[in-house]
Amino acid sequence: MFMRTLFILSIVAWAAVCVDAEPQAINATNGGTVMKHELPSLPYAYNALEPYISEDIMRLHHDKHQAAYVAGLNKAEYELQKARDEGDYAAISYWERQLAFNGSGDLLHTLFFRDMASSAGGEPSGDLADQIKKDFGSFDAFKKQFSAAAAGVEGSGWVALVWQPEFDKLYITQILNHQNGALSGSQPIMVLDVWEHAYYLQYQNRRAEWIESWWNVVNWPSVAKNLSSARSYVPERVSASM
Ligand SMILES: [Fe+2]
Fold first, then answer.
1. Cα(114) to centroid of ligand 1, in Å?
2. What are the chain's domains?
3. What does pTM read for this prediction?
């Protein structure tokens, strides 16, 4: 049911978990509803992640970049409904792509910010640690693979640890822009932003240094909670084999 194109529908599955403020439904121009999305607040102070992420980056990244994706998402929602009301199929195609880009941008940033904390880092424990060991061999092997995937993203994009319920397994995936290249039907549980806006003010072109610093602020309990939520969906073919 969620095997439609790429990422947007898979991340809709965790939208309710990621978005702090419940979107408001407003009347569309001609029937139907348009969702109104809000920029979620950061769960910590702007300077909480220093020295690994500067206050200036956090203010710019959250207040300007994510805010722009939320604005773009709201515009796409409105224009998409309008185009559907008018039967303008060329416009529908265009605004669906805008919805995928901006909606994925908003949701990935929400997850990215929520999965960081001060006095964090280290290694996961419990079920998350066990699943990482099962799927990657060891935490160190996983960390090396994740960092290499982040360093290898061409241009702007993300690296994500995703749970694929049909395969009952964790994967590392690269996401170009915000929405291209993801494994269909998978749920991201931990993401790292490697767009230049995420690190250039502090690390300039040293992306590898940014990646290594980021591991110090990973909020593993939050990531573990995401995995637990993702596991709540059990596909029929997996449950039948249990
Ligand atoms: Fe970003």
1. 13
2. 6-46+53-114 (1.10.287.990), 126-241 (3.55.40.20)
3. 0.87
- State in Å, rounded, how far the first CA of the chain is from the last one: 21
Contact present, 32 and 85 (Cβ < 8 Å): yes
Q: pLDDT by residue (tens digit) across 69-127?
A: 999 999 999 999 999 999 899 999 999 999 999 999 999 999 999 999 999 999 999 99
Tell how far the Cα of 124 is from the centroid of ligand 1, in angstroms. Answer: 24
User: Ligand 1 centroid vs 85 CA: distance in angstroms?
Assistant: 33
Q: How much distance in Å is there from the Cα of 190 to the middle of ligand 1? A: 14
Backbone phi and psi for residue 233, each to the nearest 5 degrees, phi listed first: -95, 120
Instruction: Output the CA 217–ligand 1 centroid distance in Å.
Output: 16
